[in-house]
């Protein structure tokens, strides 16, 4: 996987989604998006399952009753607004193929992320409320900071000789609320994070954005919508392009101490499900990730899911040999990954692999130079442009070598 630079990412822990059995509306909290959707269990369940029609109807009846009793209707009015926004969200559901899901202890959830060494490591602090993402070279630091747990912003640092440079707040995200769980893709451009905001679905939502090299800012982040998000907490999205798999955490349908880690196949672009032609119950099931085993799949999705499960099995198997000696990681196919030249049978493949290793290292170095130049010498536009062009050329060279390695090795009798 290509790398712009390495980074160390630290972030605050998620607040658990908890449902209340009370049927009496509670007083509105200081931060309503940090609480369950409603103090009424049935309304919570209908919203969580995206049954907005039933939830809106019930909220309207309860509001009418409260109004006759001269009681506050604020809780029910908020449910009606949530349903209105949710109905809009159902018109943009991404068709995502879920490969696997596993329920784990919330205090130990990072062990369910089988990241390759090239991508880095996720580390949970001893306190249990800080997540650290560290790539291989530790060049940049992205860290949520704020005056309290509901005022977190992402601050960028650089690590030089074991010390952090002065931090700067990342601009352009456009989120008014608590921001954490950042993950920067190795291209240095694509940025995922979780945020709690009154403008979101509720609790933590997943967001995505990209870096604009011209303005030196990230574009305003977009809520990733259903099914990545729900009315529970959804966070810590990670994508490993080398195996074409992604992971994110969600405590939807889970007790307070548990969280579900979903493994999915990343789409190259959003594949919106047709709202007009899809059965509503089927659409809601796909949007809310109800009963993964029974989710409807196209024939193409079934095939890609089978292939992805093989890749996931390989990734999980690699974890057991994580500490074994390896010079590199080259995924040959779904069944084999090479870690040393001795793993190849073809002499030509070994030669090509040596070239691939060297060019990959050169690519990492150039990407690091580019990122530092963008930050420290933004006026050197021609130099930056030349370096960007060289990186694009080198990326193509590395990609072609990868194809030749696979073609050469797999053609062996």
Query: Quaternary status of these chains?
Result: single chain
Radius of gyration: 23 Å
Largest sheet: 7 strands, mixed
What is the helix content?
25-40%
Beta content comes to 15-25%
Determine the number of helices (DSSP H or I, runs of at least 4 residues). Answer: 7
State mean pLDDT (0 to 100 scale). 80
Shape: globular
Write the H/E string, N to C: EHHHEEEEEEEEEEEEEEEHHEEHH
Q: Which residue ranges are poorly predicted, with pLDDT under 50 across at least 5 consecutive positions?
A: 1-35
How many DSSP-defined strands? 18
Structure description:
With 413 residues, the chain is α+β, with helices and mostly antiparallel strands. Helices cover 32% and strands 23% of the residues. It contains 7 helices and 18 strands. It has helices at 41-48, 52-68, 74-89, 280-288, 299-320, 347-376, 381-410; strands spanning 7-12, 97-105, 121-124, 130-134, 140-145, 153-160, 163-164, 168-169, 177-184, 190-197, 204-212, 217-218, 222-223, 234-240, 245-250, 258-265, 330-331, 337-338. The strands form 4 sheets. Strands 1, 3, 4, 5, 6, 7 and 8 form a 7-stranded mixed sheet that branches. A hairpin with a 7-residue loop joins β5 (140-145) and β6 (153-160). α1 (41-48) runs antiparallel to α2 (52-68) and α2 (52-68) packs antiparallel against α3 (74-89). The radius of gyration is 23 Å and the shape is globular. It starts with 6 loop residues before the first strand and ends with a helix.
């Amino acid at each position: 996987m290509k790398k712009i630079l390495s980074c160390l990412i630290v972030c605050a822990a998620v607040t658990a989604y908890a449902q209340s059995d009370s049927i009496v509306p509670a007083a509105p909290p200081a931060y309503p998006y940090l609480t369950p959707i409603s103090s009424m269990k049935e309304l919570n369940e209908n919203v969580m399952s995206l049954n907005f029609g039933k939830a809106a109807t019930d909220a309207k009846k309860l509001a009418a009753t409260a109004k006759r009793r001269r009681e506050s209707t604020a809780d029910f009015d908020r449910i009606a607004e949530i349903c209105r926004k949710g109905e809009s969200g159902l018109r943009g559901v991404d068709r995502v193929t879920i490969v696997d899901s596993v329920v784990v202890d919330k205090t130990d959830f990072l062990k369910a992320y089988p990241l390759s060494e090239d991508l880095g490591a996720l580390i949970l602090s001893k306190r249990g409320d800080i997540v650290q993402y560290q790539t291989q070279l530790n060049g940049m630091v992205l860290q949520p900071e704020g005056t309290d747990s509901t005022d977190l912003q992402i601050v960028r640092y650089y690590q030089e000789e074991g010390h952090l440079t002065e931090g700067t707040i990342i601009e352009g995200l456009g989120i008014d609320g608590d921001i954490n769980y950042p993950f920067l893709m190795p291209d240095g451009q694509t940025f995922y994070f979780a945020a709690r905001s009154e403008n979101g679905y509720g609790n933590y939502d997943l967001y995505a954005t990209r870096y604009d090299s011209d303005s030196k800012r990230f574009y305003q982040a977009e809520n990733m919508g259903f099914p990545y998000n729900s009315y529970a907490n959804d966070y810590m999205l990670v994508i490993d392009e080398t195996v074409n798999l992604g992971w994110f955490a969600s405590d939807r349908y889970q007790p307070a101490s548990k969280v579900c880690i979903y493994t999915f196949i990343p789409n190259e672009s959003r594949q919106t499900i047709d709202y007009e032609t899809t059965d509503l119950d089927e659409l809601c099931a796909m949007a809310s990730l109800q009963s993964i085993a029974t989710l409807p799949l196209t024939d193409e999705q079934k095939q890609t899911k089978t292939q992805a499960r093989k890749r996931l099995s390989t990734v999980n198997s690699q974890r057991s040999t994580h500490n074994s000696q390896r010079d590199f990681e080259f995924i040959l196919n779904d069944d084999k990954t090479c870690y040393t030249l001795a793993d190849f049978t073809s002499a030509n493949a070994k030669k090509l692999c040596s070239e691939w290793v060297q060019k990959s290292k050169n690519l990492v170095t150039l990407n690091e130079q580019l990122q530092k130049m963008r930050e420290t010498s933004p006026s050197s536009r021609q130099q930056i442009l030349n370096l960007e062009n060289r990186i694009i050329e080198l990326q193509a060279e590395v990609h072609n070598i990868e194809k030749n390695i696979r073609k050469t090795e797999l053609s062996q009798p």
